[in-house]
Automatic annotation (TrEMBL):
PANTHER family: ARM REPEAT SUPERFAMILY PROTEIN, IMPORTIN-7, 8, 11. Residues 970-1013 have a biased composition (Acidic residues). The lineage of its organism: Eukaryota, Viridiplantae, Streptophyta, Embryophyta, Tracheophyta. This is Importin N-terminal domain-containing protein. SUPFAM superfamilies: ARM repeat (SSF48371). GO terms for biological process: protein export from nucleus; protein import into nucleus. PROSITE patterns: IMPORTIN_B_NT (PS50166). Its main location: nucleus. One of its GO terms (cellular component) is cytosol. Residues 419-442, 968-1013 are annotated as: Disordered. Residues 421-431 have a biased composition (Polar residues). Pfam families: IBN_N. One of its GO terms (molecular function) is small GTPase binding.
Amino acid sequence: MLVADDGDSVQIVRLLDQTLSSIDGVSVHEATEALDRLSTELPHFPYRLLSIASGGENPSQRVAAATYLKNFTRRNTGSEGIISEVSKEFKDQLLRALLQAEPALLKVLLELFHIVVVSEFVKKDAWPELVLELRSAIEKSSLISCSESSWSTVNALMVLLTVVKPFQYFLQPKLVKEPVPQQLESISNEVLVPLVAVFHRLVDKALTTHEWGELEMEKTLHIISKCLYFSVKSHMPSTLSHLLGSFCGDMIRILDSLSFDWSVTPSDGYLLRLKTGKRSLLLFGTLVSRHRKYSDKLVPEIVKGSMKIVKHSSNISKLGSLAERIISLAFDVISRVMEIGPGWRLLSPHFSLLLDSAIFPALALNERDISEWEEDADEFIRKNLPSELEEISGWREDLFTARKSAMNLLGVIAMSKGPPVSTTNKTSSAANKRKKGEKNRINNQRRSMGDLLVLPFLSKFSVPSKSNILDASTSAAYFGVLMAYGGLQEFIQEQNPEYVASLVRTRVLPIYSTSDCSPYLVASANWVLGELASCLPEDMNVDVFSSLLKALAMPDQEEISCYPVRVSAAGGICSLLENEYTPPEWLPLLQIIIGRIGKEDEEDSILFQLLKSVVESGSQDIAMHIPYIVSSLVSNMLNFIDPSEDQWSQATVGGLETLAAMSQTYEISKPETDEEENEATEIWLTGQGTISKALSALLQHAWLATDVPPTSCIDHFSKMLWFIALASTNCNVAVELRLADLLVVWADLLASWDGWEESEDLSVFDCIEEVVSISTKYGFRSFLYRDMPSPPAMPVRPRSVVESIGSFVSKAILEYPSATRRACSCVHTLLHVPDYSSDIEGVRKSLAVVFSEAAFSHFLQLREKPCSLWRPLLLAISSCYISHPDVVECVLEKVVSGGFELWVSSLAFSYSLTLDASPPSIASEVKLYVLTLVKVIELLLDVRQGNATDDLVRKCFVSLMEASRRLEEIAEETDDDEDDGEPEEEEEESDDNDSNDEDSESDDKCEETEEEFLERYAKAAAELEDSEVIEEADEEDDEREIDLGHLDEIDTQKLVLSLMERHHQKVVKLVPSEVISTFLNAFPAYTGFFT
């Protein structure tokens, strides 16, 4: 539909120009709002925008129209990616615009086209004519038809790429074997098959041209290769499978044409050729791993082409990033071939050549490494000394650098087995009936290539010593040796402890004892020790730790920074600690860490991470040093924490996190004793005072020294405040630590906090519970009520601490699924623990309103399918209802009509649901069920005088009787536990049985087949789609008792007895006899009511 250049279109153009020309954000906003209004008022609005995008006066105007049209279309796209209605005329007009658009406009229009394609072609399959129209457009385009056509070949192919791209992924992941989508088969048959012939012809032409000047041809080759790659990434169209040999052969020719001459500056045409080569290698990797049925015959040529490329690895320091990526991908292709059947046969004759001329040159230190070390040390560490290597595998897709890919290939080769070793001794059939434990010994007769080739190759390089330490080539080569040992982590872990000890003692530790050794070697040695920490023999740990400690303290040299040395040493020490190594002395390590903190901001964040690991690992052993460490850190951090900055540096955040962790560790270390005068307790209390004063000083500096305290690190500060609250053992201490002032600021910050991220932030709720307890204990006035501020401040009463906390808790219930359970637990604490006097009862009433509204709104989102969050949400409403029944009933009815009865019914159902799964074991929760159901039944039968339905009353009575019985059982179980003597000893099992079980498991473990892999992922996809996925906190939260405050004093048996006395006839009429019988067995005293 061509839209006339009427007044409406002129108005749209004017508004678009306003969005471009205005430097005033308000004017841009006004123009955008006006366009939004026109989009709902004007007929054919999308056509008008598309007409402007196709024929606007200038490029900026056309791009602006296309951008608004793209955003307009996205807004009108449903959650499933489907647009309600797109006419054929609009799609045709869009396609014509794409074929003639200039590059800047094409980019935006393709983004719009992608939205339309996904909806109309992929999901709805409502654009059958697209394929033939696309074929026609490509055939008539300028390069293909060799004419002066206005339709660009590059544009037509980019449209094809946009159509094909969605099919790179499985569209029906729940199916174990998804058939090739009919749309993809159609594209393959009508468009891709003819393009393979075009691709071949263009490759012939490009390879006969020694210059790289024909940009359109190179672009065309690149786009066709991407189309072919996306077409086979997941599926294999039948018509394309027959042509694999043709276009793979052409891609190999392209790879052969690549030049890795670093002395020549690459032209734009050659960069496009490199991109085509990169895409070719990605396609080869996909064929090897996904489509072996079709590609096995091609593997020899793929290997041959890849081998030619990896031999250029010695020049990676001089090549650009794209050329290095191609070498990396070639290594990856070889790794994938190693994982398939023909891999060994094809590659084993080339192992020595690969090691010597490709893998090892990529590992050795080069000029780029040295410049990166000095210019961007963090980038050097990220690329070469990663904190943890993932599993060595031929299927890795995230390596990206030639060195990482070479290391991965080295690991794959080392783990591969050579041919079986023949034995001259003939064994009887009886001898073949061996024990399971002997299987590994027999299997090891097939020795791995790590033993046969890799380690002997690495042993040729001697450890740098005084005689050759200044030889740069020796150091560079040994850097490669150390990189190789890191890449061989999985292989080395399978060796016996004596072998590992010998390797570390003779090939790694000597680096540290050589005077003036290269920092590059020390850094890589640190990294190797960290990678091998999990398999180090215990008797090696002391020497390894000592070496890493020496490296951690290494100062910068005159011309070389030793920052990477210290960072890698910190990583190595962390690995040792994670593997449960305990140093004989912690103090030397702590002194080095504390001594270096504050010298370099970037290094501080690493040191804080190390200190946190040390504290968590050392726990009780480190506790005695924590008061000194905290005091030193706080005095240091006070100098560089600026309260006026809302966002602090990574080092500052790391320091606060470490202080928070140390405060928790120290609290856990409190001695268990009944004697108040115990010396250990006295020492611990002195340390607690030291820590609390230091943390209070830090919080005062961050929060009380400025009118607008920063909102950063609320979770870490909450842990510190929790410790301060625990340390406030009397009113004088609380005053000295300015606890009341800190609580006001903390609560205000908490109310506006929207930075919830992970379950680690659950410590905020620990702080809330402790704050409620201590504020109630000492009667902090600001906790429940705050006075009007003095003039000239606005006469508005600020929120009390409990109101601010309530604001956060209600938001957590509604918005943070992982925090919902703990937030609901805080609802009970906030409503029932504080002493609300009559003059401030309105505070509790307002809390009950916001809590019940948030909990019920969240429950309504989950009501269709029962889940574990039902119980905490419904019980939170119960606490609110017990406090203010009339108010809460109104709130529930306001949220949704019939809300009160829905909540009552769901509450009763949730108890029976819990009972079916496993009997509730938390007495406080069961008691809350009882109290709530009694109050609800009284309302239904006494206040409403029987207007409630019998079904609802029956549900309530059944759940009440079951909950009352369960509460009695829990009380009896608790009494029995208290009467028990010594705990039962756990049955010990022999080490032999354990080892036999391990052997059995390892013997029976088989590699997952492709069918099993697809079945597993299809099942996971089905579970994700069919069930409601809720981000929840740890299941341990289910076992936490809730604090009911004054409600704990209520005798539930008396309440139930009174209710049964008044309504036993109703019970007999409504409740099943078996429920009554079970109830009477638990409470014989009630028998008189039912006889």
